[in-house]
Amino acid sequence: MKNLWAPLLIVILLFSCFSLSPKLASAHTNNSEGFSNIEVKDKSLDYKLKLDLEELGHALNKETDEKELINHKVLQEYINAHIKLYSDGQPIEGTVEKTDIEMIKERPFAVIDLNYKIQHRPEKLELTYNMFMDDSDPSHANYATVKMNGKQQEKILTFESREVKIGELSTFQSVKQFLVLGLKHIFTGYDHILFVISLLFGAKTIRHILSLVTAFTIAHSITLALATLQIVHLPVRLVESAIALSIIYVALLNIFNKDSKHQPWLAFGFGLIHGFGFAGILSEMRLDVNHMAASLLSFNVGIEIGQLIIVSLSFPVIFWVKKLTFKPINWVIPSTSIGILAFGLVWFFQRAF
Question: Which of 108, 103, 16 minimizes the C-alpha distance to 57?
Fold first, then answer.
């Protein structure tokens, strides 16, 4: 019986090689080519992308032919995952507007028209190109032409050289952009807003508020800088889950001890965690090394301005509610804290699991 194992293994091995050989032989076209023609307009960016049709099919694990191109949605997702465009440092994503087939050097090419929405004509544009290179054809090359603000840049994108940059971001534009980004981030960061409001529930005086806000600001400024400069890095899931836990913890304090006075060390400790959360949005951007300090500072200033607005609007209402002697009003803060606790629990389970 033992003597049967060796021949059986050889047969299985040969069968496996035979069944895989056609796939291996056609794994990629080898030395495939592509063409990128990018033109920047006032509030949009047009990208005409031409790719070897057979290679595109292999990369997407789908048969493509001259009669029908791949579904626009699938194609769009694949391109946005493998081609990164940054307008003044901010990532932008393209929408597939039209597809066609064109014969180039007697080979069929997919012609894909992409449109990118931008708020204004950028001063600086960056392209990172990863089509096929890590998937199906490391020898792929793309011949790129970028036109912006009367300038034109041409480059051959290869496995070893995948980036093209054109233009330069001014200090003023960098400061303005990141200040607005900081404001937008705090006003759309509902977890941060609920945490700040929860802290205010335990604030007794204006001086106490200032100590809490100052401690929170110093702490998140420290970790924001450390994370942005890539000195300290924590997993996103861990950070986002910890932020949810900070909301749960402070909400529980407010529910079970409505007369509790939150200490600055509490705001400082949780501020360190929230700083990593603030840095998350910056990690998606291409920060200009020449304006790194100005960008980081203006982003932080934007967050602080937004935070001060939230405190200025929220605390007078909280203070007024606490002064009322009407008994049912005493349940306003505990019931609000229960609502905040519910949000914290939902966010925690969404982020941790």
Answer: 108
> Which residues neighbour 228 within 8 Å (Cβ) at sequence distance 6 or greater?
279, 282, 283, 287, 292, 296
d(CA 254, CA 22): 67
**Measured between alpha carbons, how far is 157 from 127 in angstroms, rounded to an integer?**
10
Per DSSP, the three-state class of 203 is: coil
Sketch the domain layout of the chain as residue ranges: 33-167, 171-352
Task: Report how far residue 275's alpha carbon sits from residue 261's, in angstroms, rounded to the nearest whole number.
Answer: 23
How many C-alpha atoms does 261 have within 13 Å on its Cβ side? 7
Split the chain (353 residues) into runs of 10 and give each run's mean pLDDT. Answer: 44 44 46 92 92 88 56 87 93 93 89 92 93 88 92 91 89 88 91 93 86 93 91 92 94 82 91 92 78 88 94 89 71 88 95 87
